[in-house]
Description:
Blueprint: H1 12-27, H2 42-54, H3 56-62, E1 77-80, H4 95-102, E2 108-113, E3 116-119
Antiparallel strand pairs: 1-2, 2-3
Helix pairs in contact: 1-2, 2-3, 2-4
Amino acid sequence: MPGNRQSRAIDLLEDARELEYHLRLQKLERAVLSVRSPSVSEASDEAQLLFECATVNGARSTGAPGGALEVGRPADFFTVDLDDPSIAGASRDDLLPAIVFSLSRAAIHEVVVGGKPIVSEDNI
């Protein structure tokens, strides 16, 4: 990609997808992150792991106290338009895989960092 990292928009889910794609290319196989258990689908398993890489582990890697919605931690989160075509029709069980693997940036409804809205419908 041309330019430096600062010239690109930050998209934690796209970064998580790229991680999985690069590992696929490196290993020349699919489901490289799967630690599959009998009760969890392959897509759900990988989506959970990638989501944790992008949130909890991402925060930990930068020394940030966020990454999870818990008492005493900064409220860092985003909300999603569940009617967005990129995830339309996803069932409750398939929602996380749909968000991780196909969510459009346009489906992000609100972004809150440290309890303060930084992106919302009013300032997009």
